[in-house]
Write a structure and sequence with these properties.
Helices cover about 30% and strands about 15% of the residues. By secondary structure, it is α/β, with parallel strands linked by helices.
Length: about 350
């Protein structure tokens, strides 16, 4: 059953997006995300029994859709390392009310999986890619994974009609700033949209430093100087990327300024962790356990009630509060002459 109910949190924000982490494992060790120092060979990943099975995930997603979720994104860890993900996709694809069923991947396994994911009912993919040269990309993924295989995966995704693809690029000062123009140039005049993301502090495991953040305003001015850009109106409330199009009609880019200009006021995202906790903020240090309920034979109504209770109690605006520390970063509006 598809509910039409929209639940609002304490700041009036609806729950529209549900990000489902299907695994805590990843085959990359990106230095800004799962660095080897914190995720070495001795790291204890979740035992299988603690991870939600596909039936449990489907129940949570259905409950979310009943409360207003319209967009479901599978993520991780690296979602494609979880076996048989196509089965989950096909289960979710039958849920009425989901407008957008997508997946964020590092692209490493996409070449062999794109066709089966599309056949299972996946709508689109977002591929993370931080550089087009192997030296930089390998320095960032830290497992010597070559760029060409990610590009092969993207080609397979386009062939399987999983486009238009979005590319996520984290820009880190002194590491891959040169990749900004490389990537913009490579995907100009295609329907692939590159979204440049400010390097964020993810829970004190990545040694984050403010001076390594390249503000979105700077990325914008670098690209604008080479290929003039103009802003595009957001397509929906809660869209995380600010959109810009090339004035010459060469397509679009996006900027995700989570550090310099946090967008908590419009944040409509809930996250389900691989072990069945709901997090109402990317930066939340603790989540709300749903796995217990799921495994104690709770009914669908009880599950939905709990999710509603979690969302209506939500008051997070971590990034905005945190941004008091980042006031010195330039903001996009102030520095973008195009208006
Ligand atoms: N493994 C998948 C992937 O690589 O896309 C999905 C999970 S990954 C955590 C999701 C996205 O978060 C990726 O685009 C990644 O670049 C981004 N990300 C991870 N750590 C980040 C950080 N410290 N700052 C900004 N973005 C980050």
């Amino acid at each position: 059953m598809t509910g039409t109910l929209t639940v609002l949190d304490t700041l009036g924000r609806p729950m529209r997006d549900l990000r489902v982490s299907v695994t805590d494992r990843c085959n990359f060790r990106c230095t800004y995300c799962m660095p080897k120092e914190a995720y070495g060979s001795d790291h204890a990943f979740l035992p299988r029994a603690e991870i939600l099975d596909y039936e449990e995930i489907e129940r949570v997603v259905r409950a979310g859709v009943g409360l207003g979720v319209r967009k479901v994104r599978l993520t991780g860890g690296e979602p494609l390392v979880r076996r048989g993900l196509e089965r989950l996709v096909s289960m979710l694809a039958t849920i009425e009310g989901i407008d957008d069923l997508t997946l964020t991947t590092n692209g490493s396994l996409l070449a062999s999986k794109a066709a089966s994911l599309a056949a299972a009912g996946l709508h689109r993919v977002t591929v993370s890619l931080d550089a087009l040269d192997d030296a930089t990309f390998m320095r960032m993924n830290d497992v010597r994974f070559p760029v060409a295989r990610v590009l092969d995966g993207m080609a397979a995704a386009n062939d399987a009609r999983l486009g238009p693809i979005k590319v996520n690029t984290v820009v880190r000062r002194g590491v891959n700033e040169h990749a900004v123009l490389d990537l913009a140039g490579r995907f100009r005049e295609t329907d692939t949209v590159v979204r440049f993301i400010e390097y964020m502090d993810v829970g004190h495991t990545n040694g984050w430093r403010l001076d390594e953040v390249v503000p979105a305003a700077e990325v914008l001015s670098v690209i604008d100087a080479r290929w003039p850009l103009e802003p595009v109106d957001p397509t929906y409330r809660g869209e995380v990327a600010r959109r810009y199009r090339y004035s010459d009609g060469g397509g679009e880019i996006g900027l995700i300024s989570s550090v310099s200009q946090p967008f908590c006021g419009d944040c409509t995202r809930a996250r389900l962790s691989a072990d069945g906790h709901i997090y109402t903020c990317l930066f939340a240090t603790s989540g709300h356990d749903l796995r217990g309920l799921l495994r104690e034979s709770a009914t669908d109504d009880e599950l939905a009630d709990r999710l509603r209770e979690i969302w209506t109690g939500r008051s997070d605006r971590y990034s905005e509060l945190r941004s008091l520390e980042t006031v010195e970063l330039p903001k996009v509006e102030m520095s973008f002459i195009g208006g």
